[in-house]
Amino acid sequence: MSRFHFTLYSRSYCHLCEDMRQALLALQAPDESAAGWFTVELVDVDADPGLVARYDELVPVLAGSKDGKPPVQLCHYFLDAEAIKRFLGDGI
Q: Are residues 69 and 59 in contact, defined by beta-carbon separation less than 8 angstroms?
């Protein structure tokens, strides 16, 4: 089971969303021994009016959770490497 879980709130035809997804996936270890230390769930905000109301102008939004704890918003628009490092280090 993965220790960290990221949720990427995105939408179709969003180049910033794809850029953030690619940047996040690039953090995965290239060797298989460390693969799977995190999971990524893509959520289409346009499929849920509540998510549109919450994230519409901020998309893409990245949230993270550790060991089943409630997710926290880490960054929006672009992957914030420093926020990710703090999250992974603190385990929020």
A: no
pLDDT in tens, 57-67: 999 999 999 88
Reduced to 3 states, what is the DSSP secondary structure of residue 91? coil
Range of the domain at 66: 4-90
Q: Which two tokens stand for residue 20?
A: 């953030």
Amino acid at site 30: P
Task: Say how many Å lie between the first and final Cα of the chain, rounded.
Answer: 18
| Nearest C-alpha neighbor of 39 from the set 1, 12, 71 | 1
Q: How many domains does the chain have?
A: 1
Look up the CATH number of the domain holding residue 61.
Answer: 3.40.30.10
